Amino acid sequence: MSRRTPPPPAPLPQRDGVDPVRVRLPFGGTWATVREHLVERLTGAGPGMVESMFAAGQVVGADGRAVPPDAPYRPGMYVWFHREPPAEVPVPFPVEVVYRDEHIVMADKPHFLATTPRGSHVTQTALARLRHELGLPALTAAHRLDRLTAGLVLFTVRPEERGAYQTLFRDRRVRKEYEAVAPYDPSLALPRTVRSRILKERGVPAAREVAGEPNAETHVERAGHRTGLGRYRLVPTTGQTHQLRVHLASLGVPILGDPLYPEVTAPVPPGDFRRPLQLLARRLEFTDPVTGAHHAFTSGRELGAWTSYADWSGEPLPPG
Question: Rounded to whole angstroms, how far apart are CA atoms 175 and 152?
Fold first, then answer.
């Protein structure tokens, strides 16, 4: 079996830490020109957007030259362009760098900031910011952290080494420890290990537990409690979407500030950074697959509901 030929390098530089879009023209179809295909493909770009991109010379081929509007369609051809990013409200919290060497960057991500560009979050992402701030255009993420979750995220400096670090997470050779603030229930017997099968359907905001062989496992301990509040240490051995949020909700102590569990609530307006989800990726520990060094990193962030519940919520502590 012959190996697939890798695509040529991007002829356009990054813009604000975001890579240009690469499109390979598919085989088959009846388009007469490259422009016709992109008009059909980029239906969400807005009326006239593709035409204006061609008119401005913003669609380029592998040689970096502008593709003319009447360029004939050639299956397998690559083109690149920058899409205008959606209007984004700046997330007013910094990404802290915990550690950096020639192979990795360990970042401490704030709440509300996505890890990588996706959907309506493009420039307001940890990856785009770090590429720009550190001058590392080839930086990539080895794993992801939910936008609403704060804490440690590992990035790789060299693209050719990314697979080695991703394999650590795939093979569960990274010890991950999280911290959460949720209601305190004195009747909840802890520590315990929660195992269940979690299903996350595309287009459905919340995941759910279903019958079947468990695919999610979380060890849950109570790290402290005070009036009405519990502080929990969570050690997952699997990485299902929203796993920690689902498991604490299933125990009857949903994480404070969670807009999805136990019930989906109305989305907050853009720019509303009050009451962040009280979930923090506190610690990551692993043996570096490239250097062999043992790493153990700890987030310097604190969960606001625990340090000052009144400041976080604008209300007094709950009873209990």
Answer: 12
Closest CA to 99 of 107, 91, 111: 107
Q: Which two tokens stand for residue 154?
A: 């590992």
Q: pLDDT tens digit string along 95-108?
A: 999 999 999 999 99
CB of 197 closer than 8 Å to CB of 223 = no
By C-alpha distance, which of 305, 250, 301, 235 is closest to 276? 305
CA-angle at 261, arms to 260 and 267, nearest 5°: 20
Residues 19-72 have pLDDT tens digits of 999 999 999 878 999 999 999 988 766 678 899 999 999 999 999 999 999 999
Please state whether the peptide bond connecting residue 262 to the residue before it is cis, i.e. omega within 30 degrees of 0.
Answer: yes
Distances (CA, A) of 73 to 29, 33, 59, 67: 10, 4, 14, 11
Coil, strand or helix: which one is 122? coil
CA 73, chain centre distance (Å): 35
Torsion of CA 256, 286, 155, 240, to 10 degrees: -50
The chain-wide mean pLDDT, for the chain, equals 93
